[in-house]
Design a protein that fits this description.
Aspartate Aminotransferase, domain 2, 42% helix, globular
Length: 682
């Protein structure tokens, strides 16, 4: 009997019949044999009744193994249960329905009948041997033994470990506890941000869960800088930072980051996951008898860094200062300690009490490690994060000086980590701190030493983005205004959200399968992409939709999101906030009540948003307004690397012209590069 194929689960959102049924029902149908064809599941028989899948299966069967047509020809479909009719289902074309497309785009019959043994001998995979259709056909022809079965693994020596069975078992656990992850095919369109297309470029959707919080991934200054850098320095870095991968652009970005956080130095990594892991593991391993104190909601990168350090760890309750102090008191002041926390917790939107945590750390002889991943670019007058935002006016007075605000939250943090891949719109991560700390990590951290350096154009784009945001506050202002509007609209509709003072809008569902179904319905029926979040990212019972408004979302897009969410909640019977609160002992109710008791005012005040003096940016309206590019900020950003990029002989059109467009006689190979030896110095 066939288990529910992963492809069916993947394409369920696109199929009217599959999407209308629960996964439990589909799994039962896929594991229950047909009465007429015992080797075929009820779900496969049902597929033969589909006006799209029936001809697709026929074609597929003829191309693969003769005999499958016996299932679809001459079969009188069994009586359908109420609501099972396909008569009211619009038949999608193969170009729209991915299931039909996969079945009707098989290779020709000759290619489909490649000898499995010859393929295995050549070390190639045999697609037909693992196809559900091929296995089903083989069952009907009595040739099952010639085709490898997923759970038999006939070619495995019984004295050896069955790796394939192990992989399947682990995946089955994910399916059973509803934590298996499905990745949607979402392709962001630069000139239509925040719109994307799905697998088909013609199918466009509104994206409401991107971590490109400010849309800097499509900012013209960033793109222009990256094009100029590509033309000047090529695609890759050429090696690790130690071997050919340490260029002027990398050093320039690190100087920019040190200035952003008003620290002595900074170090760039391939991602902030790597930055956190490498820094915590190196420090924890090198500091003698080190103890690391970690917030219970810290990101996996920090958890793994602590684990890899093999240092003693203490986990304190989320944002609980009393619990943190009680744990700090257990150790002598001379014992090296690290207190690790995040400024904004991305799944619930809570904000850490940075001043108070740093004061406790200093009191007990610890250093602080502040992860600002979801805050850089988003908070503060220059976009340095929550630590800067807490002393907003003081940092505003200092301007672009690299001097610290003495006694400020950012000055108190010994180590700050951040990402270049969220609000700054590119990719990469970094740490900032004292010169000696950064140099030690540079010298000892394997995650930095033994990995290829980020490409020059990525690094240049990141610096342009940071330089732009340091000078242009209105992107984050408008983003926060959109957050306020959306939260107010949801609150009025009794949609349950985790209360928080940040830019994250976590809509609670409380069930993994239901959250996935809600996400699928929004995408399928409303052309809105919001990914569902389940375990292990959030605890079981706290599953949610994580929504992140951007400054590029229009009033009309927001209204469509709100009405669509309301429709999905009604259609699926998802509990509203008042319903959850009536269930006082439920996980969601406890979470809501706890967060309500801790409710804090938004980090951005009316004055900081420009609502008091009339300088606040205006919300965008479809067809009537466009995102405003900061002219002065653009000039500052473009000039950052002008001394390296704007030199004589470098093309500035953005990219090299295609080979066929380069002047020259037809048929002649265009000469793009003419390397010459560097002359010896006199």
């Amino acid at each position: 009997m066939d288990k529910l194929p992963a492809s069916i689960a993947k394409f369920r959102p696109m199929c009217p019949y599959l999407s209308a049924r629960k996964m439990k029902t589909l799994r039962t149908m896929s594991t229950t044999p047909s009465t007429k064809f015992p080797s075929v599941s009820r779900l496969m028989v049902k597929a033969t009744e589909c006006p799209t899948m029936r001809p697709a299966l026929l074609l597929r069967s003829h191309e693969q193994v003769a005999g499958y047509a016996s299932l679809t020809e001459g079969v009188t479909p069994p009586p359908m249960e109420k609501g099972d009719s396909y008569s009211n289902v619009k038949t999608p074309s193969p170009g729209v329905c991915p299931v039909a497309h996969a079945a009707t785009t098989a290779p020709d019959a000759k290619a489909a009948h490649v000898n499995p043994a010859s393929q295995l001998a050549e070390g190639k995979s045999n697609p037909a041997s693992t196809s559900p259709v091929a296995r089903l056909t083989a069952d009907m022809d009595g040739t099952t033994s010639a085709i490898p079965q997923p759970h038999h693994h006939a070619n495995i020596d019984p004295t050896h470990f069955d790796y394939a069975a192990f992989y399947e078992g682990e995946l089955e656990k994910k399916h059973k506890d509803k934590s298996y992850r499905y990745f949607n095919n979402i392709n962001r369109i630069a000139n239509k941000f925040p719109v994307a297309h799905t697998a088909s470029p013609a199918d466009e959707v509104d994206v409401w869960c991107s971590n490109d919080y400010l849309g800097m991934g499509r900012n013209p200054v960033v793109l222009d800088t990256m094009h100029r850098t590509l033309n000047r320095y090529g695609a890759g870095a050429g090696g690790t930072r130690n071997i050919a991968g340490n260029g002027a652009i990398h050093l320039s970005l690190e100087k920019e980051l040190a200035n952003l956080h008003r620290k002595e130095a900074a170090l760039v990594f391939s991602s902030c996951y790597v930055a956190n892991d490498a820094t915590l593991s190196t420090l924890g391993a090198k500091l003698p008898e080190c103890v690391i104190f970690s917030d219970s909601l810290n990101h996996a990168s920090m958890i793994n860094g602590i684990r890899h350090s093999r240092a003693r760890k203490e986990i304190f309750k989320h944002n609980d200062l009393a619990d943190l102090e009680a744990k700090l008191q257990k150790y002598p002041k001379e014992t090296p300690k690290i207190v690790a926390f995040e400024s904004v917790y991305s799944m619930c939107g809570s904000v850490s009490p940075i001043h108070e945590i740093c004061d406790l750390a200093k009191k007990y002889g610890a250093i602080t490690f502040n992860d600002e991943v979801h805050a850089v670019g988003m908070y503060g007058p220059r976009g340095a994060g929550v630590a800067e935002h807490l002393d907003f006016e003081a940092h505003g007075v200092l301007g672009q000086s690299g001097e610290p605000v003495k006694g400020g939250a950012m000055d108190k943090c010994d180590i700050i980590t951040g990402t270049l891949g969220k609000a700054f719109g590119v990719v990469g991560g970094y740490i900032a701190g004292s010169a000696h700390l950064v140099d030690m990590i540079r010298s000892y951290a394997p995650g930095f030493i033994f990995t290829t350096s980020l490409p020059p154009h990525t690094v240049a784009g990141a610096q342009a983005s940071i330089a732009y945001q340091k000078e242009h506050v209105n992107d984050r202002r408008l983003q926060q205004l959109n957050v306020r509007t959306l939260k107010a609209r949801y609150e009025a509709m009794d949609i349950p959200m985790v209360p928080n003072p940040s830019h994250i809008v976590p809509v609670l569902v409380g069930d993994a399968a239901l959250a996935k179904e809600a996400s699928d319905m929004l995408l399928r029926d409303h052309r809105i992409y919001v990914q569902s979040i389940n375990y292990p990212t959030v605890p079981v019972g706290e599953e949610r939709l994580r929504i992140t408004p951007t400054p590029g979302h229009t009033f009309e897009q927001m209204e469509r999101l709100v009405s669509s969410t309301d429709h999905v909640f009604n259609k699926l019977g998802i509990k509203r906030k008042s319903e959850w609160l009536a269930l006082a002992e439920s996980t969601v109710a406890k979470l809501l009540l706890k967060r309500e008791s801790e409710r804090a005012e938004p980090l951005w005040t009316d004055r900081q948003l420009g609502l008091k003096d009339g300088t606040a940016p205006k919300q965008l309206v479809d067809g009537k307004s466009r995102s405003v590019l900061g002219v002065e900020a653009s000039q500052h950003a473009r000039m950052r690397l002008a001394h390296l990029l704007d030199v004589e002989g470098v093309m500035h059109e953005g990219v090299y012209p295609p080979v066929h467009a380069i002047p020259g006689a037809p048929g002649r190979r265009a000469k793009l590069f003419g390397p010459r030896a560097v002359p010896a110095s006199a």
